[in-house]
Predict the 3D structure of the following.
Amino acid sequence: MTENRHDEALGLEAFEFPPDPANDFEWVPATPEIAGELDQPPEADWRTAGTTRRAFLRGVVCSGVAVSASAYMFTVQSGEARAAVRGVERLISLNVNGKTRRVDVPPNETLAQTIRYRLGLTGTKIGCNRAECGACTVLADDTPIYSCSTLTHQARGARITTVEGVAAPDGTLHPVQQAFIDELGPQCGFCTPGQVMAAVGLLKKNPKPTVDEARRAMSGNLCRCGAYPHYLAGVMRAAGRA
Amino acid sequence: MTDYMHAFDLYTPASLADAAKLLDEHGKDAWIVAGGKDSFDWFKDRHKQPKAVVDVSGLKELRGIRDGGDHVSIGAATTLTEIEESKLLRDNFPLLVQAAAKVASPQIRNSGTIGGNVSQDTRCTYYRDGFPCYRAGGNSCYANTPTAMNREHALFEAVRCVAVTPSDTAPALVALEAEMAISRGGKVRTVSAEKFFIGPDVDITRMTVLEAGDILTEIRLPKKWAGASSYFEKVADRETWDFALVSIAMAARTEGGMVKDVRVACGGVQCTPRRLTEVEDLMKGEKAGPELEKLARRVAARGAKALNFNHFKIPLMGNLAARAARSLA
Ligand SMILES: Cc1cc2nc3c(=O)[nH]c(=O)nc-3n(C[C@H](O)[C@H](O)[C@H](O)COP(=O)(O)OP(=O)(O)OC[C@H]3O[C@@H](n4cnc5c(N)ncnc54)[C@H](O)[C@@H]3O)c2cc1C
Ligand code: SF4
Ligand code: FES
Ligand code: FES
C-alpha cells in the first residue's frame, strides 16, 4: 500500500479544498501559567508550516500515501475490486454541496465514507456507524438522512448537502449555525454537524416549527454532552430569524 | 469489523420485472434492500453476507400511496415519513400513521420503508450478535437460559425461539386487516397481514412468509376500517430509536357508545403481532366504560408464559389494553 492506485482514477489530485477556517489558527507558545513549567521548549514544528491537523488529514485521505489512513480505508476492498461485473458502475457523479464530483465508489461503500474519505469533507462525523446517533446526518434532496447507513450508490441521483455546504458563499454562517453559536449549542462539538443538518432540514420543510415539532425533528441526533436544550433553543432562534 | 460491509454486487433494477429476473438468477445468494436500515447492520457485522444485493427502493411499481376503490394501497418502498405525511392515510387510517410515526428516528423514517419495516428480522441481541442459535440455524437458544438477558423476549407461542416481532407497523396492519401483495416471477399473490408474519412453529429461521425470490410489492388497507376509531401506543425505553417492549394497535367501530366491531393486536410479546382475541370478544357488543376497561386489563395477557426478566410485560399488556378500551369511552 505504498502507492495509491485510486487517486488518479478519482481525479482527486486536482481537487481544490475549500478555505478552511482552521488554517487561520496560530500556534501560541504555552505559558507556564497554563501549561506548567516546561523543561524544554515545545516542538514548534510538529506540523509543517501552514499545515493544520485538519488539512493534513485531508491531505492523506486524498493522496492515500499515509499507510494508516489508507489501510483503514482500503483493507477490505481488494476482493471487491474484482467484483461488480454487471452490477452498478463504480464511477459515478455525485452532487455534493451544489458541485458535481466524479468519484469511484465500490458498491459496499456508505455515503459517510465517500463524503469523508474520498471527498475530504470531514465535517460529517461518524459516531456509531449504525443509524443510532445522528452524527453523520446529511441532507439528500433537503431531507435529513443518516449517511453512515446509506449506500453512496443509493444517493446517486440526489442533491447531497453536508455541513460544509450550508453557509453562504461569502462565508456568512447559516442562521442555524449562528443560532447554535449564540445559544452555546456545541460543547465538545462532535454531534454539532449532525445537529446543524437536522435543523437545516427541518427549517427547509417547516420554517416556523413549534417547540414540539422542533424537538421531534431533532430527536434523531444524540448529544453525549447533553446540550439538547441549547440546540433546541438554537433551532427556535434560527426559525425566528430565517 | 463493522466499518465496512462485506463486498457484494449491487444491482439497481429499473423495473419490477428486472428485479424478479435478478432474484431468480441469484437465488439464495440474493438479498433485497430498500432503505437498508435493517440490512446494513447485518452486513457491517458480517453475520449475513449475500453476494448480490438488489436495491428495490427506486422501483416505481413499489412507490406511492393510492386510492384503489375498496382499499388504499401503499407501495412497499414507500418511506415511513411519506406514510406519516400522507393526507389519504391521515384521513382514513390514522392508526397506521401513528404507528409509522413511532418507528426509530426521523432520519430512519425518511429512508426506511414500510416493506422493510414489516420484513425486518428480529432484534434478539444474541441472534444479532451472531450467536449460532436456532434462528441462525444452530441448535440452542441463548436467550432462554437461566442466566440469559431476556427482558425484551416473548410471552407467547415460543417454540424453541423466544424472539419477538420488532415492527411497529405490523400490529397496526394486523388490526386493519391489511393484505400483502407479493410478486414472484411476475405472478402476484396476496396474503393477509396475519398470515404474512410467521412464528417459529412454522419456520424458525424466518419472520415472514417471504422466501427467496419473493418481492413484497404493496400493502392494501381495506376501506372496511377507514375512518374507524383507533388507538396506538408503544412503550419503549426511549422515545427515539428503541424498539417496542410492548405496543398495542386497535381499530374499532362504535355505535351509540356500543362497540360494534373491534380488532386489537400487540407487538413485542410474540414472534408475530398477537391478536388479543379475548379482549376483542369481550368488547364486542359492550358499552365502553370503566367496567370494560377492567375486564380488558384482566384478560389481555391471559396465557402468558414469562421468562426470567420479562414479567413486567404482563401488567404492561393489561394496562395498554385498558387504555385502548378507555379511548372508546
Ligand atoms: C437504530 C434503529 C432503530 C430502529 N427502531 C425501530 C423501531 O423503533 N421500530 C421499528 O418498527 N423498526 C425499527 N428499526 C428497524 C428498521 O430498520 C426500520 O423500521 C425500517 O423501516 C426498515 O426499512 P428499510 O427499508 O430500511 O429496510 P431494509 O433493510 O432495506 O430491509 C429490511 C428487510 O426487509 C426486506 N425487504 C425490504 N423491502 C422488501 C420488499 N419490497 N420485498 C421483500 N423483502 C423486502 C429486506 O430484504 C430485509 O431483509 C430500527 C432500525 C435501526 C437501525
Ligand atoms: S430467542 Fe430466537 S433469535 Fe434469540 S437466541 Fe433464542 S433462538 Fe436465537
Ligand atoms: S454515525 Fe450515522 S447515525 Fe451514528
Ligand atoms: S456537543 Fe458534545 S456530543 Fe453534542
